[in-house]
Amino acid sequence: MESEAWQSVDIIKNKQGEPHVLQQKVEVYTAGVTEESAGYTKPTVEHRLVPLTELTKNSQ
User: Fold this and answer.
1) For residue 58, pLDDT beyond 70
2) Number of domains, the chain
């Protein structure tokens, strides 16, 4: 079974000094029948920058 996810790599600031999270897309492979089974991830070449406030606004 295979799916995709985003893994946070680093936190960087843009030119205005606002923190952004650099994320890398990974392919997720599960070894078993359920999502909780042990598996592994494989990084891809796709990256994105996400404002830190977008990732933390729901945790308040």
Assistant:
1) no
2) 1
Please name the residue ranges forming H helices in the chain: 52-56
Domain that holds residue 33: 5-55
* Distances 54 to 13, 21, 34, 49, 51 between C-alpha atoms, Å: 14, 10, 30, 11, 5
CA distance 49 to 3: 21
CA distance 41 to 33: 16
* Residue 32 counted as domain residue: yes
| pLDDT tens track for 1-55 | 568 899 999 999 989 999 999 999 999 887 766 666 667 889 999 999 999 988 8
Does residue 37 form part of some domain?
Answer: yes
